[in-house]
Amino acid sequence: MLRVAVIGSGPSGVYTAQALVGQEIVPDVEVYVLDRLPCPYGLVRYGVAPDHEKIKSLQHNLRAVLEHPRVHFLGNVDVGAGGLGPRELRRVFHAVVYCVGAATDRHLGIPGEELPGSHSATAFVSWYSAHPDAADGRFPLAARSAVVIGVGNVAVDVARILARGADELARTDVPQAALGALAESRVENVWMVGRRGPSQAKFTTKELRELGALPGADVVVRPEELALDPAFGDSAGLPAVNRRNVEVLRGWAEGAARTGGAKGAPDAVIGGRRRLHLRFYLRPVEVLGDVESGVRGVRFERTVPDGAGGVTGTGQYEDVAAQLVLRSVGYKGTPQPGLPFDAATGTVPHVEGRVLRDGVPSPGEYVAGWIKRGPTGVIGTNRPCAKQTAAALLADADELAREPLPDDPVAALRRAGQRPVRWPGWLGIEAAEAALGRELGRTTVKIADWAGLLVAAGGGGR
Ligand code: NAP
After folding, report:
1. How confident is the model at residue 461 (pLDDT cuts 50, 70, 90)?
2. How far is residue 374's CA from residue 433's CA, in Å, rounded to a whole number?
3. Is this prediction's pTM over 0.90?
4. Residues 148 and 250 in one domain
């Protein structure tokens, strides 16, 4: 018997579990998937936007893995806290695979970043996704104008949620408090701003196109700004995704040119429709405002391409008025207590998934997912990544399985002060969320607070 702990039940953790039990080279692998939250699925539950039902439905595949007879979900287990670190885990499991993702957001490092009204996009995502650590998020949705800094898929998600009507979101599992706040939103203009050109934006084309199909919002682009990008006129040499992005933007620019540009001032709201402005070649230099009244805008420096994929500043500035700023410039891994960490990349040093301590593979310690390779790629990217790590672990299995272990890992975790929520507890949460949805006349509605989740799981207080 080989007993493995996988830390984190997001895609990388679940794909790791799947790779470990779905092979025949090493029979009798038992996998315990531990998560700090009482709910499984990581960013599929707490990151994928609520209106992306198709991607969310991936939960069905992840669920099938967590219901495998040799996979055991243990939620509400806080690895790294209360003396449950790598050393203690190795006394209970032959091997530990850390699939803890990239838990925090990158910073801009510009003045005003921390002013009231300036938030990380990840905090906003957590709030509307019902992450229990974000239940009391307060975002100034009385704002008329919101700036989203960055042009990756997270930026597209938050811009789209701001531009959607509450009636559209009511059909999703957005928690009731967030839905109420979004229903009161007075946001009219959303500005999504990239520091480089449209051919270098990080969003994917499907996500970009979706912005052009929002029932209550219009996309506004500036043809002259897009034309600053040398690849805008001739995109033939670009990688496929960038080429397709440019084609979509070009289509929008031509539409605007045909109608003589959007009617009225660029930020004039016509017919109650919101406006979603895609801007490029603007580098944020300061979030404007003061501590008393909060954010009042963002100062950008106009940039131009430097011919080598980057940009240089021009010394010309543009202020975009906004009362809400969402910084969406990427996730960042955080150090795990007791594990080595490379602060420059925000990852754990490894070779093929084996954790390196002082440059040497550490027996029984592995990584997969964003903490292994950084916060890039789509959900499916985690599958080959997890397979590589599982292959390394299985190659080490003979050596690892020699260690004697206590009979019952769950009892050992309880002795370490943990109160695991097991699979039936999670099913209790699912049932409670479905019941809440019925009560509110909606579909499933997520429970957004720790106490509510633990009561639904039948697990008492935290
Ligand atoms: P991302 O794709 O890395 O995008 C980050 C954006 O922030 C880029 O536009 C980047 O511009 C910009 N940026 C970075 N530092 C900046 C600075 N100092 N000033 C101004 N702009 C700055 O990160 P993400 O959007 O957080 O997404 C993370 C991962 O999750 C990605 O792999 C993404 O595809 C994935 N994801 C996928 C979906 C989906 O499939 N629907 C949804 C959400 C997230 P530069 O390029 O110039 O650095």
Report:
1. very low
2. 33
3. yes
4. yes
What's the rounded Cα separation, in Å, for the pair 84 and 461?
A: 19
241 and 150 share a domain? yes
Give me the residues paired with residue 4 across strands: 31, 95
Q: In the listed set 330, 357, 390, which residue is the last one of a domain according to the structure? A: 330
The SS3 of residue 31 is strand
Domain holding 132, by residue range, is 106-330
Binding site membership of 10 for ligand 1 (Cβ less than 6 Å): no
Q: pLDDT (tens digit, 9 = 90+) per residue, 159-184? A: 999 999 899 999 999 999 999 999 99
Picking from 141, 144, 152, 151, the residue whose alpha carbon sits closest to that of residue 119 is 141
Contact in structure between 334 and 346 (CB atoms under 8 Å): yes
DSSP summary character for residue 342: B
**CA 302/CA 281 separation, integer angstroms:** 6
Does residue 443 sit within a domain?
no
Q: Are residues 113 and 167 in the same domain?
A: yes
Comparing CA positions, the residue from 327, 53, 328, 10 lying closest to residue 174 is 53
Count of CB atoms within 10 A of residue 247's CB?
13
- Verify whether ligand 1 is closer than 6 Å to residue 207 (CB atom): yes
Position 135 confidence tier, pLDDT thresholds 50, 70, 90: confident
Question: Is ligand 1 within 6 A of the CB of residue 149?
Answer: yes
The answer, yes or no, to whether any atom of ligand 1 lies below 6 A from the CB of 329, is yes
Q: Who's near 106: CB < 8 A, 6+ residues apart? A: 329, 330, 331, 332
Ligand 1 center from residue 150 Cα (angstroms): 6
Which residue bears the tokens 């679940």?
Answer: 14
CATH of the domain at 158: 3.50.50.60
Which residue's alpha carbon is at the smallest distance from atom 26 of ligand 1?
330
CA distance 143 to 189: 9
CATH of residue 75? 3.40.50.720
Q: How many Å apart are CA 436 and CA 446, to the nearest integer? A: 8
Residues 250 and 349 in one domain: no
Q: Are 160 and 117 in contact (CB under 8 A)?
A: no
Q: How far apart are CA 144 and CA 140, in angstroms?
A: 10
Does some domain include residue 451?
Answer: no
Is residue 456 in a domain? no
